[in-house]
Structure formats: C-alpha cells, structure tokens
UniProtKB/TrEMBL annotation:
Gene: deaD
Primary subcellular site in the record, as a coarse category: cytoplasm
Domain Helicase C-terminal: 234-380
Protein's organism: Georgfuchsia toluolica
Listed Pfam families: DbpA, DEAD, DeaD_dimer, Helicase_C
Any single Gene Ontology cellular-component annotation: ribosome
Name by which UniProt lists this protein: ATP-dependent RNA helicase DeaD
Amino acid sequence: MSNSIERFDQLALSTPLLQALEALGYETPSPIQAACIPHLLAGDDLLGEAQTGTGKTAAFALPLLQRIEVADKRPQVLVLTPTRELAIQVAEAFQSYARNLAGFHVLPVYGGQSMVVQLRALSRGPQVIVGTPGRIMDHLERKSLTLAGLRTLVLDEADEMLRMGFIDDVEWILEHTPAERQTALFSATMPEPIRRVAKKYMREPREIKIKNSTATVTAIRQRYWQVSGLHKLDALTRILEVEEDFDAALVFVRTKTATVELAEKLEARGYAAAALNGDMVQGLRERVVEQLKNKALDIVIATDVAARGLDVSRISHVINYDIPYDSEAYIHRIGRTGRAGRTGNAILFVAPREMRMLRTIERATRSPIEPMQLPSKEMVANRRVAQFKQQVMDTIATQELEFFENVVRQLMQEQNLGARDVAAALVYLAQAERPLQIEEKYEKPEKFSKPEKSEKFDKADKFEKFEKPAAGRKQITKPVKSAKGAGGTVGNSGVWDPTGPRQRYRLDAGRNHGVTPKDIVGAIANEAGIESRYIGQIDLFDDFSTVELPTLPEDTLQLLQKTRLRGRPMDIAVDDSSATERPAHKKFGRSDAGERPPRVPRSPQTSVSPWADKPQKPYKSSKPPFDKKPSFDKKPPFDKKPFKKKASPGSAH
C-alpha cells in the first residue's frame, strides 16, 4: 500500500495538517510515514523498526494529532524518549505540525528543567506530553501528572532506552497507563527485551520494518560548525569570504520567510544573493535559477521544496544554515553540489541541542562529518587584502589611467605630499564600504569543544528529584544563597558570587517571537537562581535580545542555553557582536544603527526595572546589613510602645 502513496493528501489527513506540511516543505511521504500513518489513524497498535532520521516522528505525530480532541485538556498522548534533546525535538515537531490547530498545547518534560516551570505548564492542560522516563515517573509519583485520559503511548527509540537502562522505568510507566490505550513502539533494532515488552503490553501490533537505503556521498566534503558565540549570519559571511574554491552557494533554511530575510541581509553586506521559495511565481523562480547559472547571482537561499530538482553545475557549496528535520532531507540538500564530476562542499550549522541529529546524519550517510573552525579575523583580513591587491593589478593592466595620474601628481605638488601618503588615503577611501582591517569587536575567538555525550546527562534524569531526593537519587544542580544573599548555582566551580564582574549576553529570541523583558527576567531567575535585582539592562531587538548579568559559570550557562523563551531555545552566549550590526533600538531613540551608548555598571540597589522605562525606588532590604547589629538607641515615638520580643512557647521564663 505504501508504494502507491506519493502525496500526503492520499493518507486521509485533515486540511490543517496538510496545510502545515505544505508550509514546512513536505511533499512526498517517506516509506515509514506512508506505512504507519494509516494504521495509527485506525487505532491499531504498531511495532515499527526503522533507523533514526527516516521521518518516523511525523509518522506518529501526524495521525495522533488528527485524533486529538482539543477541547479535552487532559494528556491524551504520551511520548517517551531516551534523552532530553530528543524530547525537545519531538515536541517542536508536534508544535510545527499543529500550527493550525487552535487550542493545542504540547509540553516537553525532562530532568534539569525547573520543576516549578513544569508544574505551571502542566496546569495549562497540554494534550501531548513528551518526556524522559525519569521525570515522567517523578510527576506520576507527585500526582502532578495523571494519565486517566491517555489514549496513545509512544515509545520512541526503544533500543536506546534499553541501552541506557530505562527499560524498567518504561515498564513501570506502562503499568500506570489505561489498559485501553493505543501503543506505538519504534526502534532501530528489535532485541529480545524490546520484543518481550511489546508482547506483554501491546495488543496484536502491526509490524512494519523499513530498510535504510541512504548511502554515502563520496564526492562531497562534509563539515559542520557548532553554533556558539557569533551569530550565524556573521559565521556565514566569514565562510563565504575565505573558502578557496568558492564559486556559488546554495544556502538552505527551513521557512519561506527566512529565505527573504537572509537574502536581504546578505545583499546589504555586498553579496549577490536572492531568495528561492514556493511563494514565488514560476517565472521569478526560473529567473533566479537562470541568474545563478549565468553568474549574475552567487548565492541562493532556498527551502527544501524550492530546491528540489535544482541542477546548476557551478554550485560549489551547500550550506545548511538551518539543520534539516531528517537525514533524507540532508542527503537531498547536499546532492545539489558535487555534480558533473566535480567535487563539492557541504557545511552544516549545528546548535548544541542539535548534536544528536548530526550523529543521526552521520549514520545515515555512513561517513563522518568533520568539525570546522571558523576563519579568524586575520584570515578574513588577509583574504580581503589579497583580493584588493588583485583588483589594483587588474586595473593597472586593463584601464587607461593617465587622467588619474595627473590628478595624483597635482595633489602631491599642491599639498607637498608623498606618493605613499596619497596612495594610502586612496586605499582608505576605496575600502570604506568593505574594510580591509577587521575591527576587534567584530570577532570572537572560536574554540571547538567536543560536545559531551548526551548519556552523561540523561542517565541522571531518572534519578533527579526536585525537592528531597530519595535514597539513591541525586541532584545535579541546586539553587543556594551566596554570601551576599543572592541566588547562586553550585556546580563544578563552587559557589558563584552574583556581585562579581558583569557581562553582556545575547539571547536568540526577540520582539518577533513575542518575548518581553518580563519573560527574560522570569526565565533567568527561575533557571539560574539569580534574583531579579542582579539582572541588568535588557535590550529587545527584532530577532534577538541582550541582557546584562553577572559573569555566569559554565554549568549555569549550559543550563540556560537549554531554557526556552516563548517556545524558542534561549541559546544564550556572550554578546561580542558589533553594535553596527544591530537594528535601531527605539528605547534610546536611535533612528540609525550607530554605536551603543556606553553602559555604566549598575549597583544592585539602584536597578532599573526591565519591564518599565522609569527608575524604580532604591532597593531597601528588610534585614540589617551583615556587618551591623540593629540599634535601639533611639526612643520610639510617643504614640508607639517600645518593641518587645515575644517569648517563644518553649523558652524558659
């Protein structure tokens, strides 16, 4: 049956889901999707054997979304995943597919996230819960999560949960679910313990096995850059400038809007770039492709759908600006380069939380993807100088310069200048739009650090408890009070002092995502244990925000990087970007993108409220300073009695 299915509208999916798939660029169902969706829509139990990256998330998410009753605020679908990274990815996929379902909510639940935040989110009534076994068990024991209305349970990557020692926890959860539930189990392999669980808890499951047919692309050099420090746009421009064998590039993003935005930003930086997406009329799309072929364009920013069938031999680089949803999409993307017997280059931008998908792609392509260092500011400057020198030599060889030589000679005689002075001034004027010497603030030294394996954290998920840990359980981080009375975090570095040096940080969420200063303060205060009075100036921009904080220890920074703002990962990092790269900021009345006014470090006692433009009253503690004892020398007013301490019930008289 799956062999005859070529479109999603042949799978009896609802119109809102089909519209979401079209917006995401999905055209043809993968084999696992075509095979699983009909059975899950019919309510059958399912036992699916398929490699990660074959599109199985959509295979179970789409039919389960169609069966969701949005008016019912009880959890109707529970998805168990072995790691917190996968839980976030699956939850994001549900949210993407359900973009047209009003009133739908999905909640990722995993260890390391604030229990208070999770309890608050659970009270809102999400219909889908995606979580790791350890934290799901915690909520079931607390009675904060009830599964009385559960209709479907999905075990994703069951073999990974077995390998990580979660299979007993999975069985415990299964025993606390309604007997009438639908169960779907997906695994890359089917070892005997997995089959035993399937036989015990599933009812006549339909078995589906999909072979992985993807192969290695041998003619393409594959590299990845782990996103950190610099904004992705700055990293992209560095790569485009320094790559030696660069001819033309195809840059992939996830959304149609992103193609236009990125193309405009690259054009503003002097690149011949254009967007290519499904919203463009056919004539315009054909014109963009023709301009790429005849070298009128060097860079095309495209979505997966728009680039299908694109065959331009001069494409030397494919850059995955946004990581694809599955490995098959990645293989289709990089297949646009390395054609006609030429070698190609594929570069992948990977956020820390997306490292799992990187490993999946490596397994699917059966080839390692090597890490790359971003070009340094010296490399970019040397490249620009070399190009400028070549332009000068070409001009000398091809242009008639007698008139200009007379102008230079007159200038030297009139102003008593040397040839070097005039030449240096002319070089300065010529490079004003594209400086040869990179400013220091444009750069941030990039150091590649090998990411820790997710198992190091996820094994602790099943032991983590919010309050008093039970026997055998331990806490990874714990909010404490520092010597100054402010919240801190205990990690490998000991007690952190919030009154120390301050640093400006950049968050990957801004006005366009609905983020407010109150959201930023709440997220940082809840996750890092930092009191709001130690959170400094907050600036909101369209696509990102900046906040001034005490210099954060590494463990706290890693924790905040996974925190979410309005459904988006915070991705917090030290802000070393240039003020000239930022959009205008209305708060300071700037109409241009000039230099940011100098900041004066705030005292915690005279903080400015992040959600109000007017200064607040100075902070006054209700407690006396640590180095002073309360004084009662002054007599109380005549209409008040002197303070008298009440004796405690157990004190001696």
